[in-house]
Amino acid sequence: MSNNRTILYITRHGQTQWNAEHRMQGHADAPLTDMGVRQATWLHDALLTVDFAAIYASSSMRAYRTAEIVRGSRNQSVIASEDLKEIGLGTWEGHLTTELEQQEPDEFFAFWNAPQLYQAHNGGETFAQVRQRVLPKVEELVNLHTGQTILLVTHAVTLKTILNDFGQRPLTHFWDPPVIHPTSLSKVVIEDGVPTIELYADVSHYQVPPSSPLLEKSAHGPRP
């Protein structure tokens, strides 16, 4: 194996109370549900034999708590990062998606269907601003851990931003499948400076049937 083969495992936090209630989260936070804890535990079991050089998590408690569960008995700390937080949603945070769709239909439509046109009039971040925050942090971690394997625990928009950059997917196709389900697992291998996405939102570690309602089927995909 080449010494410059860097592996990133990237996951989203487990289901939260606001996910279950169809509320937007953003920089605001909500605790993991019992199911969210189970999802994180399933991922812990799936990654039990992976030797992580470091574990990084968004500083939002839902992601940090998920990282702690996935870490399990490993003798290392979870390193919190503000740069790995979810897209800021301003005044939308804590509101039901159905409320926002009715009250701000044009902006809500743009968020989910034309992200290149989304202006964040709610006082939050645009998708471009998320890129400016997140991608330099990922580059920093890749350079810091060249030749090692690390875990990033983050959020739906943040994770899509990272993978869409590695996959050179334009913003117009930001929300293209696959859906980022809670604790779905993605894996990027960087060798000789060339990234390869080997897993994208894999849920094979879910200990439920593929038809389970645990797999979110919202028309708007995962709720940030």
UniProtKB/TrEMBL annotation:
The keyword Cytoplasm does not apply. Substrate binds at R12, H13, G14, Q15, T16, Q17, W18, N19, R62. PROSITE patterns: PG_MUTASE. Transmembrane segments: none annotated. Keywords: Glycolysis, Isomerase. Pfam families: His_Phos_1 (PF00300). It comes from the Bacteria. GO terms for molecular function: phosphatase activity. The active site is at H13 (tele-phosphohistidine intermediate), E86 (proton donor/acceptor). GO terms for cellular component: cytoplasm. PANTHER family: BROAD-SPECIFICITY PHOSPHATASE YOR283W-RELATED, HISTIDINE PHOSPHATASE FAMILY PROTEIN-RELATED. This is Phosphatase. The gene is pgm.
